[in-house]
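Response to reviewer comment R2.3. The reviewers asked that we include at least one raw input/output pair. We reproduce the pair for Sushi domain protein here without editing.
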Amino acid sequence: MGAYEFAKYIQKVEEGRSIVFQCSKGNYLIGPPKASCVNGNWMPKVRPKCVSQTHPMIEGRIMWDRRKRVDLNQSCPPIQSTPEKIVVVNKDMDITVICREGFEFPSEYMDGRSVCVNGTWAPTPPECVPKSCRIPVRLHVFFLKRRTSQILQSGDVIEDGTSATMICLRGFHLQGNGVLECRRGIITSPIDECLVPALTAGTIYPQTRTLADGQQALLVCSSKNVTLSCSRGVITPTPSCVGNATTFCAAPRDTTPALIYSIHNGQRIELDRYQSAYPNGTFFQYKVRIIDLLSGPVSV
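Raw output as returned:
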């Protein structure tokens, strides 16, 4: 590279690959020395430049470099590598911090480079934090963040050590794993999907794969016939020849305090109190005082 921006010189690279920048003799690199292709974008987003050593941006730098070699009393304290980061000491008394696998800078605008100026690193060398995870794209679902019951969507970010439960929308049911957990930028167990329930031993007339809004069809079962209706994108009742084959329950109308949760892989996942519907297998454990106890169960 000469005294120009890097974008004019590079070719297309594959996802996850990195490129290293180096200036021609007589020029100086300003900005990050390395960039990686992440989701179709260069990271970090700060673009490096090669400028001439007589460029106004670095005027006086050569003289300062000479003073720096002589004035040993102005050296900066050493920065050590840690389990989270690697510190590379460059020949011109600056350092580059590189995050190890599973860690990242707190901000995407940090490039990890610091220069020793009058005994102080400028800017302050950054720390590396565990990577977050981005929720993969799934249709007909939303996600509930564990402990807080915050509602998340596909593409949202969850922090390291955080888990979320996938909740299917009305008319769909979960097939497979519905709990995701983030560990240093990696979702530990792949989540599955919410699908329309498979038709059980029945035939639909007229034979069609879709119904328009307001349209009806007849589900012919061995013991009875069921009329299906489409309203605002939802078919009711759920097409099935098995009685009570619902995939959700409407929320109770009372406002009695309750602990609401479901069990996934032996772990209790708490759900939000103000949902309009809950998936099969949800428990409501009501909180009642001894003087208010009535006959019958306190869990549903």
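The mean pLDDT is 77. The two ends are 69 Å apart (CA to CA). Further pairs are available on request from the corresponding author.
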